[in-house]
Every structure is written in structure tokens, then in C-alpha cells.
Amino acid sequence: MRRLAIFLSAVLAALALSGCALSDVGNADVVVCNDSPQVIYTITLSTETQSESVSAPQDVGLLERGDRCGFQLEDGSQAFTLELMGEHGDLLARCRGTYEGKRLLLTLREDGGVLVREDKR
């Protein structure tokens, strides 16, 4: 049990350092949510000025159904591309959109599509 706790702490620390905040998304500009039975292993969010990729350790999923992850973007309106990858590098979904200063929720749906909407908070 102690090994599992240490392993999970290491995973969460690695994700925090790479820009992805699990569950508590705080002030994230873009929040990726998984509402699909597919497990997400890698998330890549790219804009004209930055690209950030977060991967799970080998054989461990990053986002399972109900999980979410937040990303901070540099200031200003930005076009972005989101790619969600499966266990073996297979593309689960790709979407494009524009961040205009309001938090966006990007949800991988059960049908494999991605729903993009502004957070109403």
C-alpha cells in the first residue's frame, strides 16, 4: 500500500510540473474532461506560441471517465489544437478552437467527439 501511495504521489507531482492539474483545475484556461469509456494516455494542446504535452507513465492512464485536467495558456486570444491519444498512441480525438479569455471546457464524449463550450461559472 505504501508503494502505491508513493507511486501515485510521483505521478501527480510529474503531472503538476508539466502543466496538467488533475481534478482541482483552479484557474486553468482550458479544462479537458473525459466523459468517454476510452482512457486518455496523452494530451497535447498546441497554440501558435506554445505546445504542451502531458503523458501518463507507461501502462497507466492519464484520464479515465470522469477525470479532468487543466492547462494555463499565455495571455491573449489564441487558436488552439487539442489531441487526445490512447494507450498505444492511437488518436482518440482532435479538435480546434479559439481561446478568447473565458475558460473553455473540452469534453471527450462517449461517441468519440469533443464538445467545446465556455465555462458558465
In short:
With 121 residues, the chain is mainly beta. The protein contains 1 helix and 9 strands, in the order αβββββββββ.
Structure write-up:
The protein is mostly beta strands. It has one domain: Immunoglobulin-like (Sandwich), CATH 2.60.40. 13% of the residues lie in helices and 40% in strands. The chain has one helix at 2-17, and strands at residues 21-22, 30-34, 42-47, 51-55, 68-71, 78-85, 91-99, 104-108, 114-118. The strands form two sheets. A five-stranded mixed β-sheet has the order 1-5-2-8-9. The N and C termini lie far apart (38 Å). Residues 1-22 have low confidence and may be disordered.
Task: List descriptors.
four-stranded antiparallel β-sheet, disordered N terminus, Immunoglobulin-like, mainly beta, 121 residues
Question: How would you summarize the topology of this molecule?
Answer:
Blueprint: H1 2-17, E1 21-22, E2 30-34, E3 42-47, E4 51-55, E5 68-71, E6 78-85, E7 91-99, E8 104-108, E9 114-118
Parallel strand pairs: 2-8
Antiparallel strand pairs: 1-5, 2-5, 3-4, 3-6, 6-7, 8-9
